[in-house]
UniProtKB/TrEMBL annotation:
<protein>
    <submittedName>
        <fullName>Dihydrofolate reductase</fullName>
    </submittedName>
</protein>
<dbReference type="InterPro" id="IPR029752">
    <property type="entry name" value="D-isomer_DH_CS1"/>
</dbReference>
<keyword id="KW-0520">NAD</keyword>
<dbReference type="GO" id="GO:0016616">
    <property type="term" value="F:oxidoreductase activity, acting on the CH-OH group of donors, NAD or NADP as acceptor"/>
</dbReference>
<dbReference type="InterPro" id="IPR036291">
    <property type="entry name" value="NAD(P)-bd_dom_sf"/>
</dbReference>
<keyword id="KW-0028">Amino-acid biosynthesis</keyword>
<dbReference type="GO" id="GO:0051287">
    <property type="term" value="F:NAD binding"/>
</dbReference>
<feature type="domain" description="D-isomer specific 2-hydroxyacid dehydrogenase NAD-binding">
    <location>
        <begin position="106"/>
        <end position="285"/>
    </location>
</feature>
<dbReference type="InterPro" id="IPR006140">
    <property type="entry name" value="D-isomer_DH_NAD-bd"/>
</dbReference>
<dbReference type="Pfam" id="PF02826">
    <property type="entry name" value="2-Hacid_dh_C"/>
</dbReference>
<dbReference type="InterPro" id="IPR050857">
    <property type="entry name" value="D-2-hydroxyacid_DH"/>
</dbReference>
<dbReference type="InterPro" id="IPR006139">
    <property type="entry name" value="D-isomer_2_OHA_DH_cat_dom"/>
</dbReference>
<dbReference type="Pfam" id="PF00389">
    <property type="entry name" value="2-Hacid_dh"/>
</dbReference>
<dbReference type="GO" id="GO:0008652">
    <property type="term" value="P:amino acid biosynthetic process"/>
</dbReference>
<keyword id="KW-0560">Oxidoreductase</keyword>
<feature type="domain" description="D-isomer specific 2-hydroxyacid dehydrogenase catalytic">
    <location>
        <begin position="11"/>
        <end position="316"/>
    </location>
</feature>
<comment type="similarity">
    <text>Belongs to the D-isomer specific 2-hydroxyacid dehydrogenase family.</text>
</comment>
Length: 319
């Protein structure tokens, strides 16, 4: 049984898998698509990173492949419909990413609302020329405000708990409404997307990236939001029309944004870098050493569970 890992990772997380099977890793860098394409015909299992494209061409070039074990909860990098049609199993890593991603969403909310990074940057760059004083650098209160969560899966729920602890009201929109017991436990209220956009002081995107969620927030949606609203995106960049976001921020259609992901790859549109009311982080939602290792262990559990049937596999059941 041969296993190909496309990315460089702390090996500690892969110890059990390496003790049982032949595992190929890149050293000190990730494999390129071309390298993986060349090697894949020999492999039974592919462990892919969330930005590695597992497309039809690659799947068709992999006669032995049985499992694609993604290192992420998101699987928009994989042509899941085609993989399933070809009889492959696709697995992901939902549990370990939940708390870290919710923490980054909360961090971006607080930072954008209370202007933490902006003040830090101004103190460093302007020094004593920075305007300070009790009426300067006013922010948003957060406590007592309304958070609207779009996508009430594991991460949305974890963020709702954190927001409740801060004394926020939480409304949400989701493909399906939660059971009443869950709504009561989480202290959240289901609303339409329109109502959420109209009422929320913060709109947080916590939905997967699918054809249905592409540009779920664009020009029309910005117009429905409050001029004081702050948009938070820790999901996937293309959920937001980033050009429309630049326009909405410039024209004051909304107040601010906290973004961990960007529409056009690893970096934001340059206009966003110029805006003080925007906080930007480079997809660090799960970026702690502990989470990296637990995610790797979860990938290994998925692979071993699939091959040996001795533990549960987190299967992706539909695109
Ligand atoms: C990270 O972005 C993930 O999907 O787990």
């Amino acid at each position: 049984m041969k296993i190909l890992v496309t990315y460089d990772m702390f090996r500690e997380g892969f110890a059990e898998l390496e003790s049982k099977y032949e595992v190929t890793f890149p050293e000190g860098r990730d494999f390129t698509y071309e390298e993986v394409f060349e090697m894949i015909p020999e492999y039974d299992v592919l462990c892919s990173m969330f930005d590695f494209p597992v497309n039809k061409e690659l799947i068709d070039h992999a006669p032995k492949l049985r499992l694609i074990a993604n290192y992420a909860v998101g699987y928009n990098n994989i042509d899941v419909a085609y993989a399933l049609e070809k009889g492959l199993t696709v697995a992901n890593t939902p549990d370990p990413v939940t708390a870290p991603t919710a923490n980054i969403a909360l961090g971006l909310m607080l930072d954008t609302a209370r202007r933490i990074t902006e003040c830090d940057r101004k103190l460093r760059t302007l020094g004593k020329d920075m305007k300070v004083g009790v009426l300067e650098n006013l922010g948003m209160p957060v406590t007592g405000q309304t958070l609207g969560i779009i996508g009430m899966g594991r991460i949305g729920k974890a963020l709702a708990k954190r927001a409740n602890a801060l004394g926020m009201e939480v409304i949400y929109h989701n493909r399906r409404q939660l059971y009443i017991e869950d709504e009561t436990k989480l202290n959240v209220t289901y609303v339409s997307k329109e109502e959420l956009l109209a009422k929320a002081d913060f709109v947080s995107l916590n939905a997967p990236y699918t054809p249905d969620t592409y540009h779920i927030i664009g020009e029309e949606e910005f117009k429905q939001m409050k001029p004081s609203a702050i948009l938070i995106n820790t999901a996937r960049g293309p959920l937001v029309d980033e050009h429309a976001l630049v326009k909405a921020l410039r024209e004051g259609t909304i107040h601010g944004a906290g973004l961990d992901v960007f529409e056009f790859g690893d970096y934001p549109l340059p206009e966003l870098l110029e805006m003080d009311n925007v906080v930007l982080t480079p997809h660090i939602g799960t970026q702690t050493m502990e989470t990296r290792i637990i995610m790797a262990r979860t990938v290994c559990n998925n692979v071993i569970g699939f091959l040996e049937g001795d533990r549960p596999v987190s299967r992706v059941l539909r695109p």
